[in-house]
Amino acid sequence: MSLRNKGKTKLEDVNEGSENKAFETASMVGLGVAAVAVAVVGAFFLFGSDSKRKSMKAPGRNYRIFRDDFERDPGSYFRDLRK
């Protein structure tokens, strides 16, 4: 019997081992969550929209288009809409 285990029962040793496993598992889950959060924030900055150009809901469609493109030639937008 080592000095570390002197006076401990086998049950106490088992409990100490399970506490270490629980801490290890919680640490791994925490690191995984942090990694996902960093990836999401990085993707937002990498693929974020260009805030200098204003957008608008496309007339007759369910998506957004750039306002300056539409205002430049609205007639061609509506012509192309019905093709």
Automatic annotation (TrEMBL):
<keyword id="KW-0812">Transmembrane</keyword>
<dbReference type="InterPro" id="IPR039926">
    <property type="entry name" value="Egg_app_1"/>
</dbReference>
<protein>
    <submittedName>
        <fullName>Uncharacterized protein</fullName>
    </submittedName>
</protein>
<keyword id="KW-0472">Membrane</keyword>
<keyword id="KW-1133">Transmembrane helix</keyword>
<feature type="transmembrane region" description="Helical">
    <location>
        <begin position="26"/>
        <end position="47"/>
    </location>
</feature>
